[in-house]
Design goal:
Number of helices: 8
Order of helices and strands: HHHHHHHEEEEH
Oligomer: single chain
Number of strands: 4
Distance between the termini: 68 Å
Structural class: alpha+beta
Helix content: 40-55%
Shape: extended
Strand content: 5-15%
GO molecular function: nucleic acid binding
Low-confidence stretches: none
Mean pLDDT: 81
Largest sheet: 4 strands, antiparallel
């Protein structure tokens, strides 16, 4: 890693989810001494666009097509890695640009970095029935006071965090043991205005089909509701 491009690598590592401390240690392994505050300044640096941005490292004929290519790439997949797009530009336009240049192009287009959110997709076949169901209960005046919301979750008897706390220089303790098949349980529960339902514990290997779910409702929910 050269001194010229290490800041580009810092931006890439941050986009991959590494913390400031992890980035600092990674730089140190390449012989570059820096601090977390400097890494923060590199990552959060804003480029003021007083005029339409045009990179001097890209030929005039290719700049606008590359800019449009970058826009389409992120519209098609908002999670594309910067290094992947840089490689695609090199293959398609025969232009070698850095991640810093790509970042300026992104800003000039108006693309902003944001935290990812998750949403459950609903199949087309189920959308209309669900919409009809929701509209019906809105019209009936259904409220949280009269309903119970239930869900289930799988839990495992192993550490799942991505951070470890070790003494300085004790890199061997970064590697943590992990069971190939950890003990796991499925836990079912519900919550309503009246409070939480008792929990139902389902052992590993149990197929949660109709009869099993009905037994949970009869043995746990109905008993509690009455």
């Amino acid at each position: 890693m050269s001194v010229k491009t290490w800041k580009d690598d810092v931006i890439c590592w941050r986009e991959e989810g590494l913390s400031y401390e992890e980035i600092r240690k990674k730089c140190l392994s390449y012989g570059i001494k820096t601090t977390k505050s400097r890494i923060g300044r590199i990552i959060t640096k804003r480029y003021g666009n007083k005029k339409i941005y045009a990179s001097s490292s890209i030929s005039r004929d290719n700049f606008l097509p590359i800019k449009e290519f970058v826009k389409e790439a992120y519209l098609a997949n908002a999670q594309r890695k910067a290094t992947e797009i840089v490689d695609d530009i090199a293959d398609k336009f025969d232009e070698k640009i850095t991640v810093a240049v790509l970042r300026r192009i992104r800003i000039s287009i108006g693309l902003e970095k944001a935290n990812r959110r998750y949403g459950h997709s609903v199949r087309m076949a189920n959308r209309q029935p669900r919409y009809t169901f929701c509209r019906l209960h809105l019209d009936l005046g259904t409220m949280f006071l009269t309903h119970c919301f239930t869900d289930e979750s799988m839990v495992q008897s192993c550490e799942t965090g991505r951070f470890v706390y070790i003494l300085k220089g004790d890199n061997s303790r970064r590697v943590q043991p992990r069971h190939k098949h950890p003990a796991s349980l499925m836990i079912w529960g519900g919550i309503s205005w009246e409070g939480a339902t008792p929990l139902a514990i389902i052992r590993r290997g149990t197929k949660v089909d109709g009869p099993v779910y009905q037994s949970i409702l009869h043995n746990v929910y109905l008993e509690w509701a009455q």
